[in-house]
Amino acid sequence: MDERRYRSASGEPIALRRRQHSASCRELVVRCPRLQLRSLSAVTSAVWLAAYGLFALSENSMVLSAAIFITLIGLIVYLHFVKVDQESLLVIGSLGIQVTSSYASGKESTTFIEMGQVKDVVINEAIHMQKVIYYLCILLQDPGDPQGISEVVPLFQSSKPRLDCLIEVYKSCQEILAQRRTAPQVE
């Protein structure tokens, strides 16, 4: 197992962990920064202080109750649907590619793409807010046209690794795809 430190497109520290299970099976995990208790406490305190200020002006206890309720619901939604702790890519040359996102609440979201559908894995670039960003994506083969692409599946959407990290993941994926292309096809 190999772990290296990189930065995300926004400059936050991320870690890439590479694990080779066999010659045709690799797992690549990008870990995002953990939720900081300091920032969570600051936001909660700010909301509750504002609610207390409104309570002092209006003398209505519903303001305090609503602030507590909204803060707790917002935190649950953030942890369960927004804050991703890690994203992983499991590439198995004979089966396919599994993409998993693990959220701060413990929830996991997994997608599996059969290797027969995978045309290629590429690094693409996009211009966003006067900045060029790079992202890794899987090109899915069009069943009706062997030369065509039916869909583009972007990877690592939450962690947004920079180009140096994406190149490492890209090389690992391409090594397995190259083995698959050169292996004799059994029909």
UniProtKB/TrEMBL annotation:
Keyword Transmembrane helix set for record: yes
Transmembrane segments: 40-57, 63-82
Domain of life of the source: Eukaryota
Protein's UniProt keywords contain GTP-binding: no
Key words of the record: Membrane, Transferase, Transmembrane, Transmembrane helix
Sequence similarity: Belongs to the PIGH family.
Protein name listed in UniProt: PIGH acetylglucosaminyltransferase
Native species: Ramphastos sulfuratus
